[in-house]
Design a protein that fits this description.
The complex is a heterodimer of chains A (318) and B (306).
Chain A: E1 7-18, E2 21-32, E3 36-40, H1 47-54, E4 62-67, E5 70-71, H2 75-78, E6 82-85, H3 97-108, H4 112-125, H5 141-153, E7 159-163, H6 171-186, E8 190-194, H7 198-204, E9 207-212, E10 215-221, H8 222-230, E11 234-240, H9 246-253, E12 258-265, E13 268-273, H10 277-288, E14 294-300, H11 304-312
Parallel strand pairs in A: 3-8, 3-9, 6-7, 7-8
Antiparallel strand pairs in A: 1-2, 1-4, 4-5, 9-10, 11-13, 11-14, 12-13
Helix pairs in contact in A: 3-4, 4-5
Chain B: H1 27-31, H2 41-57, H3 61-81, H4 88-95, H5 99-111, H6 114-120, H7 124-127, H8 134-167, H9 173-201, H10 204-228, H11 232-235, H12 248-255, H13 263-271, H14 279-303
Classes of the chains: A alpha/beta (318), B mainly alpha (306).
Amino acid sequence: MDYDAQNAIEVRDLVKKYGDFTAVSNVSLTVRRGDFMGLLGPNGAGKSTTLKAVTGLLKPTSGSILIEGVDIKDHRRAMQHVGSIVETPEPYREMTPRQYLRHVGFLYGMNKEENDIRTRDVLEEMKMWDWRDKTIGSFSKGMKQRVVLAQALLPNPRIIILDEPTSGLDPRGMVEIRTILAELRKRDRSLLLSTHILSEVSEICGSVTVIRNGMIMKSGAVSDLINSNRSDGVTLELRFMDEMPADFINDLSGCSGVTSHYVIDERCIKLKFEGTLEQQADLVSMAGGSGLRLLSINEEGANLESLYMKLTEGEGAS
Amino acid sequence: MSLLNRSPKDNGVAAYPPIPQEYSATDQEAHRDVEYRPPSAIVQTIHFIINEFYLFKHERAVYITLVLAIIPAIMVVIVANSDSSDGPMSLLGMSMFMAPFMVSLIASGASGKLIANEIKSRTAYMNLSYPINRASFTIGKFLAGFLISLAFVLMAILLSALACIIVVGPVDGGSLANAIIYLTMATFSFSAIAFFLGVVTNHGNMAGILVTFILLPIIVLSVSFASMLGYSMFSSVVPYLYLMPTCLPDLALYSLGSTGLSITGFAGSLLSIYSNVDMTLALGSGLAFGIVFVILSLIIVYKKDL
């Protein structure tokens, strides 16, 4: 089977059926080395099924999965550089974090010294070092999730596969995890991340795949997808320090690309805009050069959230 | 400083906090972007066995099993101190009368839920995503369950034999050895059956006891009764009924000159199914049954979707 050495994860025509029900249908996606890909979709879309197939937790009905060119059927070899969290797993509740990470490190082939130091590193990073010798069974959900994240990062993996990694964490914990993931990107790691939190994908990922009813709706670089979504129009909200004269409002609403307008109050106006980026720049320049002091511009519709909403409502499905 | 900024590549070694006494690797050794090579499948299998021993140690069932295993020895002491004139072998056989149930209970308890528990408690989602193959995981788990069961079964008969030697006098080494071999094979095949049932049903404990202590013996009993009632098609089968793994604990008791409290023990006394036993064939059959059920378990675990 031919493969591109720059591909960290390659899923080709993945199909998973449970009886008559097709959970995933002809899903193909590629995570390049160093790329962070977000996998988005509503509940039951097939995200977890895809991730479980990628990590070898379930057998595909058809299709192939390559991890750094190694077929996932050769699980031992394929997963040796992969750290993963799929389907809210749990560590052994009878063990302490240190014991559990020793168990994991051994399976990856770490010797005791490396294991000990990496254990310290990841537990410190996850703010769990002080809990290293407490039984996991006594931990809260968030603490367990930190141990789970620690085991995924323990072997210093080149590829990381995460399914809802911030689930159960408090807001501070979520930010910390995002920071860690963002740093991993600098170190040429590859990530396949499934999440419901769109801002997580916007912040961390370079590319995104939206999946719905087991099929890929859209896939590509986050910026490209957002720009492609602009062609259907955005809403610009302009807020001024000063009151807007009536003729200024007329001028604004007559600009190229503006299809409608709505005056919120005497200092704020919303414009439905379907023009080009150049036309939008002209519009903003005009507003700025009008003598009125421009306080803020909000652009609605040109973000991942609006794209996601559109795709998962069935509009613009490709 | 973040651990991610501490690699030698980033020249962040100096920023690493002091290494505690218990660690001997240097930063450079521990933080290089190493490519870890998973140990061999055999080593991983052994690791899963040891891991299971650790987990079993934390189960409450271990104490109940320990009590169960010392009951025969206690019985020897109690009976010997009453006005009994039984010899050591007779006492040993009597004390082990519940061996068929004991082996079934211990093997089912230790092996039945090993895989089911991993899935229920979601630890399998972690273990099976590591660089292992499912054979290491499955065989490691099975062997751990078998070895734990065997330890308790051997403990029961050896403690009982020791009590006989101390309280009454020497026991027949040959008969004791035969009984131990039969019990070992019984534990192996019962563990394999219970393990298989656990993999299939996700509730291994009860299923294991039902099948090894009740269902299979009922089949043995029914076939032998059918033969007695003149159904000739079963007559040719009766001489080989002892090859059913469920008969192995009874064969152990027969070696000690006793009969067990079991359906097959009853059938054996009544219908003489143990009159012409080939020990090698009986052990071979038990081994074959065990291996078949382990292979079946392996196939199911391999095909299992989490």
